[in-house]
Amino acid sequence: MYETLKTDLIASLSGTVLEIGAGTGRNFPHLSPGAEWIGLEPDRRLHAKLQASASRHARPNPRILPARAESIPLADESVDAVVSTVVLCSVDDQSTALAEVSRVLRPGGRLVFFEHVAAPRGTWTRRLQRAWAPFSRRFDRGCDPVRDTASAIERAEFAFVEFRRFAMPTGLGPTVPFIAGYARR
Ligand SMILES: C[S@@+](CC[C@H](N)C(=O)[O-])C[C@H]1O[C@@H](n2cnc3c(N)ncnc32)[C@H](O)[C@@H]1O
């Protein structure tokens, strides 16, 4: 069900699609064949895998930008859509990154997101997230599990935001709160 949510969000995109924090290219299977993909990935150690994944999915010459979402090396209003899956937990500055996403999107373009977020205050999940945060920040590429990413997106420069919340099973007992949806510029 959760993979279907992500698939539907990404598959709906067309034109020039910028994926921030593209990682090893796990989203290529969801992308429409007609979309022109640009990947932004600051960790150069992942570029070879990203390149290989692109080739496996019929994208032999992908444009990969070694940059952070806080400073996107693209012109204003130059892309039709932006994809962010499990990235806004890791960026150094969410509001700067979201301002950059809004800047590069053409008017009417969409940011689609699929992100884990902080559990409500006072819950056991939130306590677990807070206890885990120092480790994930240090050992999981800066990932901060206690971010209120939904509010950050709602505060950013988008005309309309729609998303749903759900609990992703981990198989270990506690679930992880997620949001999935889109923000229109
Ligand atoms: C958990 S991985 C997710 C990768 C991919 N989006 C996925 O769903 O499989 C987080 C990614 O965000 C990238 N990242 C970390 N800080 C970033 C930043 N400031 N701007 C853009 N990407 C960043 C990491 O290098 C990593 O590839």
UniProtKB/TrEMBL annotation:
The organism's place on the tree of life at top rank: Bacteria
InterPro entries: Methyltransf_11, SAM-dependent_MTases_sf, Thiol_S-MT
GO BP, sorted A to Z: methylation
Keyword flag Cell membrane: no
Annotated Methyltransferase type domain residues: 18-113
Keywords: Methyltransferase, Transferase
Tagged with keyword Cell membrane: no
A Gene Ontology molecular function term of the record: S-adenosylmethionine-dependent methyltransferase activity
Signal peptide: none
Protein name as catalogued: SAM-dependent methyltransferase
